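User: For a reading group we're discussing how well predicted structures match intuition. Take MarR family winged helix-turn-helix transcriptional regulator. Before you show the prediction, I'll give you the sequence so everyone sees exactly what went in.
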Amino acid sequence: MEREEVRNYVEQYCKLRDIQFSAYELYARKHNLSAKELFVLDIIWFAPDGCLQSEICERLSATKQTVSAIVKKFWKLGYLSLTESETDRRNKIVRFTDAGIEYTKKIIPPAAEAEVEAMAEISNTDIEELVRLTTIFSEHMKNKFSEIEGEEK
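Assistant: Thanks. Here is the predicted 3D structure of MarR family winged helix-turn-helix transcriptional regulator, as structure tokens, for the group to look at:
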């Protein structure tokens, strides 16, 4: 495929990605949240035994400071509890409090259901293909971007 044709596909893909991110951002704003805050709540929601702050950082490719600030915000609101990890006392296990469950159950389960419903509109074969191709593209993107990380800004 010609490079210009590939560039056009990259632009189309980026527009589609932006539509997806925009949907999350708009949904988050409806609940007075940022998309990152929404994603943090989502990760914790689907980790019933709690999760480490470092796991949230890794999953979101977010800095420790960013995740820490988000966790601190929800902790101050009484929505999260923090417990020292038995294996690494510097790392905290993040869990919802009862108030946090009450707050979050109005936000995350409807969003998760919307994702499932959107995916369910696609045939099984297309879902498998979407995930397969997105996996391949994501790996190539990760590799290509890691190759340029050392360049001067």
